[in-house]
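Researcher: Structure for this, please.
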Amino acid sequence: MKHIQIFIVTLTLLSLTGCGIANIVRIRNANDNIVPQWKGNQTQADLTTFSMGVKPYIEVSINGIDGFKFLLDSGATFSILQDTKRVEKLNLEKGYSFPIGGFGDDGASNGYETKAMKVSMNNVSFKDVTFAYLPVSDSKYYLVKEEIIIDGIIGHDILHHFSWTFDKQQNKISISAAPFKALDKEKNKVTTLPFDTFLSKISVESELDFGKGQMVEQELIIDTGSRYFLKVDAGYINNENIDLPSPQVTAADFGFSGQTIRPRVTIPKISMGDLTFNHVKTNVIGDKDGDGDDWWILGSGLLSQYKTVIDYHSSQIHIIPYDDSTYKSSYNLLGLELRKLTNGHFIVRYVFPQMASQAFDIKPGDIISKIDNKTTKDISHSKWLSISDQAGSYLICRVREQEKCFTIVSKEVAGYSDF
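Model: Predicted structure, token format:
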């Protein structure tokens, strides 16, 4: 039923908006005929990865030039290039235009079609790859161009050719031309779940426990491009009169359609097959007046706490627990939504109105230059997430016209972060 509803909506949009939506369909199908070319007889490759938060990133070669940084995003329909200095030097031609949308309240961003002669990921490559080209000046996702610290996104059009193994603990990502086979030492630990593929999205059947006997069965989209744990649709919450757990924390999410201010809560439990995740931090996104079918997403905040295999050959996801860790949600107790800049500092994108930092003179657009007297150029995004998750006293320095520092004390929030 859900697939039928999405199909009807797609047809309606095509009839109402003409060439813009037609071009979305066009670029969604543009890479249908590309085929991976392996070096020699190889059918497996370990990719060059780099660490930044919980999401998976790799280095890619384009037209024979190495070092392009890409996010692996299983929630992206097609692959995207952004107008970084490195991408601009490729001098790729811009083709037809179309809107690139996502969640957010500001409307879609403007994108263009472009093509690369060759795209390589270590021992495997593709010829004549079509990308969506996203000029940041036209994007609602960014506040300043200096936020662009990656060159692009690898989406479903390339991902679906392989079985992908994501091992965050070892900082290792590998691909295979063959279906996944668990190692002998992993066979008794692995949980295998079938996934459904529709409109270039993959999803897993799940059951969500909102508390007070409110159990909801939903397909969750597997989105490695999201650093959050769980996102649920505001329209469904409103339409079904779901009583969300208390307390609710007001926060901001960002997509290619801009910023959206919505509540976050912690729900008691998610179940997927034999797997159970307790106390899952949950972002409520989307339009509360919507039909409730669009925004059900499981992100890398949860997935990265396991060795995870997305096997497009067999349409299965395999989740393998690490021996020395168990699942735990993390929280932004300081209440500062920060993004890394190309110069290494952080920029403030949002200040949570109910959290510790709201009492201080810190605003969106401010630069965070130091944390506990350490320059933020030396603080990774992963480290920032760890700092913000720990209740305590922190010296935060921001720069506007001049630098000003504040001692901010963050605390656990009972029923939200404290269990």
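Researcher: Any notable elements?
Model: The radius of gyration is 21 Å. The first strand starts at residue 37 and ends at 38.
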